[in-house]
């Protein structure tokens, strides 16, 4: 019987940095609401949100984020904009 060795995921420094910046802003009271989607090392995805009383503003930003993700990762016809893409 062949035993598969477990592969430990490698932390993504860009994700860690982004989360640290958001946490610092939330701790000062700057960030009152947030909506995000994530992907795990096993390819599962998730989303979470706290509206902070600004649900419609978050919905608008989600639409902008959707377009940015498509521009950066999916739509290869468009030129990648470095300020949006990792």
In short:
This protein is α+β, with helices and mostly antiparallel strands and 86 residues long. The protein contains 2 helices and 2 strands, in the order αββα. 41% of the residues lie in helices and 14% in strands.
Explain what this protein looks like in three dimensions:
- The chain has 86 residues and is α+β, with helices and mostly antiparallel strands.
- The protein has one domain (13-74).
- It contains two helices and two strands.
- It has helices spanning 13-27, 55-74; strands spanning 34-39, 45-50.
- Strands 1-2 form a two-stranded antiparallel sheet.
- 0% of the residues are buried.
Shape: extended
Order of helices and strands: HEEH
- Number of helical runs? 2
- Span between N and C termini? 41 Å
Q: How big is the Rg? A: 17 Å
> Which stretches are low in confidence, meaning pLDDT under 50 for 5 or more residues running?
none
The overall strand count is 2
Please estimate the helix content: 40-55%
Strand order across the largest sheet: 1-2
What is the average of the pLDDT values?
87
> Beta-strand level of the residues, as a percent range?
5-15%
Structural class: alpha+beta
Report the biggest beta sheet as strand number plus sense, adding barrel if it closes.
Answer: 2 strands, antiparallel
């Amino acid at each position: 019987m062949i035993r598969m060795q477990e592969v430990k995921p490698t932390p993504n420094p860009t994700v860690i940095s982004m989360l640290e910046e958001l946490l610092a802003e939330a701790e000062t009271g700057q960030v009152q609401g947030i909506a995000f989607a994530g992907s795990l090392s096993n390819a599962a995805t998730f989303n979470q949100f706290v509206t902070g009383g600004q649900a419609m503003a978050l919905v608008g930003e989600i639409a902008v984020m959707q377009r940015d993700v498509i521009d950066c990762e999916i739509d290869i016809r468009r030129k990648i904009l470095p300020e949006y893409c990792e």
